[in-house]
């Protein structure tokens, strides 16, 4: 395991590394059309896609460009979703992405889990401890109409910076994306 990975805890949750045996839960989550409605991929139709995603994320993690946490219930250890970051050392920025099972929606799970990741990235200087770099900025992108995700970002202190017109292309069409950010100096 890469030395940058840390397990995070909150009142109800534990965030740790995604394991190969999470493939079944990830597949169930990402074969739900409501979960992937605003994502840059279609619903999964085979569990091997989940295994490939886990392996791809692990390779990016080993290369030092990504981190992905599994979000689990602290008591039952049930897989609830995942949070990933792509960090860019030269810009001192990280790009945040997340997905959660529909059964967790509206229960504050995303907010609670993301709070831990944001604190870890901005307050704990995790990169500085290993690479003499810091993360000063976290960005998040939302597709037009993804008001639930935007509500979570606002609740966490992110600010909407603007609209990136036709910034994304997936599902055979261009998509406008809203860009949000939070800075280390934002308290």
Tags for this model:
187 residues, alpha+beta, Aminopeptidase, globular
Dominant shape: globular
Radius of gyration: 16 Å
- Give the class-level CATH name: Alpha Beta
Specify the structural class: alpha+beta
| Main β sheet profile | 8 strands, mixed
Number of β-strand runs: 8
Percent of residues in beta strands: 25-35%
What are the secondary-structure elements, in order, as H or E?
EEHHEEEHHEHEE
CATH topology: Aminopeptidase
* CATH superfamily placement: Gcn5-related N-acetyltransferase (GNAT)
Integer count of domains: 1
Distance between the termini: 32 Å
Which oligomerization state do the chains in this entry correspond to?
single chain
CATH architectural category: 3-Layer(aba) Sandwich
Brief summary of the model shown:
The chain is an alpha+beta fold.
SSE blueprint:
Elements: E1 8-9, E2 13-17, H1 23-30, H2 47-62, E3 66-73, E4 79-88, E5 93-100, H3 109-123, H4 126-131, E6 137-143, H5 147-155, E7 159-170, E8 173-183
Parallel strand pairs: 5-6
Antiparallel strand pairs: 1-2, 2-3, 3-4, 4-5, 6-8, 7-8
Describe the structure.
The chain has 187 residues and is α+β, with helices and mostly antiparallel strands. The protein has a single domain, classed as Aminopeptidase (3-Layer(aba) Sandwich), CATH 3.40.630.30. The protein has five helices and eight strands. The protein has helices at residues 23-30, 47-62, 109-123, 126-131, 147-155; strands spanning 8-9, 13-17, 66-73, 79-88, 93-100, 137-143, 159-170, 173-183. An eight-stranded mixed beta sheet has the order 1-2-3-4-5-6-8-7, with helices on both faces. The mean pLDDT is 89.
